[in-house]
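Escalation from tier 1.

The customer reports that the assembly of two entities below gives different structure tokens on two consecutive runs. Tier 1 could not reproduce it. I'm attaching the input and our single run for tier 2 to review.
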Amino acid sequence: MTQSNGLYDAILNGDAKKAHSATQDALEAGAAPLQLISESMVPAMDEVGRLFEAEEYFVPELLLAGRAMRSALELLRPLMTAAGEKLSTRVVIGTVKGDLHDIGKNIVGSMLEGSGFEVIDLGTDVSPEKFVAAVEERKPQIVCMSALLTVTMPVMKTTIDALQTAGLRTQVKVLIGGAPVTMQYAKEIGADGYSENASGAVGLVRNLLRVA
Amino acid sequence: MSRLREWLANGLLITDGAWGTELQVRGLPPGTIPDTWNLTHPERVEAVARAYVEAGSQVILTNTFRANAIAMHGSTEDDLDAINRAGVALSRHAAVEALVFASIGPTGKMLLSGEIDSEQVTAAFAAQARSLAAAGVDALLVETMSDVEEARLAVDAARRTGLPVIVSFAFDSGKNKDRTMMGATPESVAEAMVEAGADAVGANCGVGVEQAILICRRLRAACDLPIWIKPNAGLPTMEGTAVRYGPSAEFFASHYAALRDAGASFLGGCCGSTPEFIRALVSAQRATL
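Tier 1 run:
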């Protein structure tokens, strides 16, 4: 694992250039892509998450770590595709109808992408119909919904109901987040999970996939 | 003495309360950008301004929080100019003797993520500041900031108008809720904004009035600028599909003396506060005179 410590540090420090070169070095030294991911990259993102929870890291550090992670994944993805390996947990994410806020949603999307998931971003003001269509067409395992406004929160329930009506609810795990959203609200509307912040969202997705 | 200090010569000034929730009460649908109502529903926007003036606000804002080219991408330069000018005209018309400070909110994008660069941010804020200044405001308020760098660019752009510039951050993150979303502390914000040449610094939104006292004290200790404070009425909770804000106007106003003693020069409310909150603040102020 010595050859990939550089990668771990680069992600922890949010250094995209170093993450790229450390990945290249490790590959040249014979490391396997999946091994780099599981032994260096995922532990690094876990540590980033821990530091965020401990409030030593804030949003800027999360974003930079996510970017470093992506620059390493850019090198690994083609190799993995060639080898027939995939990361492919697919996440559909969007801010619900009536709500135009996208910073929180973008941070969560970037962290998920940085953690190796395929993220399909539907943008803001996403109608329940659009979520349903995306689940039908893209077949994600996870749907993430965001709302910043108390007045748009109820649309999360409308969207879950729409998935139910379309017969798609059991095919996906639905996660919700945003400033006014609470765990209690998630339970009330029948979501599978809630996270207070982006690093929590990554852990939540991993846990849900483990039990799924 | 700066214009701002002259206005404060007789002590703390009471500002206004929330606009978004007041516009919703008057029929603004969710998902509609409030600023567009300056052109489509001017009488209802003016009604909000008037409600605050009647409640005793000595400073009122304008309904222009999102009217910059990044937050309202897709709008033309002319549309944004018209929205900003109308926003100033509506507040000015309602103001009588109250001062009118123009609201400039964040871009809603992050410099750090690379979605936007500093030139775009500067251009967006400079254009908005020009429109607002041309329409005749008394000062510019850069508010609800979380990124020190974005705020610095906004203050720079706003100062080019020659108007007094106030800059206010939202402290709502971290264990003690004393950091901005981007991790900035009251101390780091105060230092950076003094350096940027702001005429006043402050905190708005956040997690409520009690927390605002602690933030205000720390801003006060960290710099000599006048302090602008507009706390949320409290975090909203859902009761069924209805939104309820925790504390009452009386509870909010009962912190008047504590906020004044903590060093607030401008005091009002953010999300969830109503003209009733301002009326209660004005009574609390009169009671201490």
